[in-house]
Amino acid sequence: MVPHRLAIVDRIARLRGDRDAMLRREAALMSSWSEVVGRRFGDGAPLSEGADDNDFLRRVLSRKTVRRYSDRIPAEELLDRLVACALSASAKSDFQQASILRVRDQQKRAAIGELFPSMPWIGAAPAFFIFLGDARRLQRIGEIRGKPVRNGTLEGFFNASIDAALAMQTMILCAESVGLGVCPISVIRNEIDKVAAVLGLPDLVFPVAGLCLGYPEGEGHVSLRLPRTLTTHADRYDDSALGLAIDDYDRRRHALHAIPREQQRSNAEFGEAEFYGWSEDKARQAAKAEGAAFPPYLRSHGFTFD
Ligand SMILES: Cc1cc2nc3c(=O)[nH]c(=O)nc-3n(C[C@H](O)[C@H](O)[C@H](O)COP(=O)(O)O)c2cc1C
């Protein structure tokens, strides 16, 4: 077949794939509440059939991180709108300490992507945003108004982090509601000096996370969450059932999506596990703490945390 006809056949196959994926997503939206909640938690807790139907809630319950994107490019108008939605998130004390930086320059994208070869979606996603905790703006406003503000405190850091996280999550849910898929990227903090240099970040401004965004390619799966008996409490905190509940969760999650033997972490240190569930994986991951470069970066860029 001549090359341009091959390209057309390829494009049609891709469009069919897009449409089939969309139809499967729509079909998932037609599931009963008990199916949707059951798929998310599988914890046998009481199900919620009675309340009014609502598409957005269904989508949230079925949401999943997307790391592979089709080559369909999201429209600029849509991206603008999503940024506006993100900046409509609640903000602590109305201080508005989130900033959003879109990395459009291909060289900068590549420079950041190359720092994380194990996560090729960082360089490849159709759009890439960085959600910044911005403790600088409020301090500058204090200067402009002649009222000294010291915003490098723990309170300033915490408030700016939360504002940025809320803005990012608002963009995530809005993007997913219009059929886009996203992946937050906090690994950029592991190379904070280099990332900050590429983006020209001043003191008191730091990345909370990046966000890859595009139209999903492939299906992915809804990730099973911890049972609500562990993550919800009534009137008094109680985690006395943790051990048994985690064993049960590990087994249920393993039955749905077992972690392949070759993906066991740090075997040299911890040995190969016969049964390798979520909790073993997360304990091994957390024992090898990441992000050692972040605290010294913050301390040398305006934060005192007092
Ligand atoms: C703050 C934050 C940072 C994350 N950082 C990364 C990252 O650096 N790389 C990545 O591939 N996924 C990252 N993720 C995605 C998580 O791995 C994902 O949300 C988690 O596995 C649960 O999957 P789900 O969102 O599909 O339920 C991040 C998620 C959050 C909320």
Concise account of the structure shown:
This protein is an alpha+beta fold and 306 residues long. It contains 14 helices and 4 strands. A 4-stranded antiparallel beta sheet has the order 1-2-4-3.
> How much β-strand is present in the residues?
5-15%
Q: What ions, cofactors and ligands are bound? A: flavin mononucleotide
Low-confidence stretches: none
Count of extended strands? 4
Spatial order of the strands forming the largest sheet: 1-2-4-3
Span of the ends, CA to CA: 69 Å
Helix- and strand-based class? Answer: alpha+beta
Order of helices and strands: HHHHEHHEHHEHEHHHHH
Account of the protein in words:
The protein has 306 residues and is α+β, with helices and mostly antiparallel strands. The protein is 48% helix and 9% strand. The protein contains 14 helices and four strands. A four-stranded antiparallel sheet has the order 1-2-4-3. Helix 4 crosses helix 8. The longest helix has 27 residues. The mean pLDDT is 92.
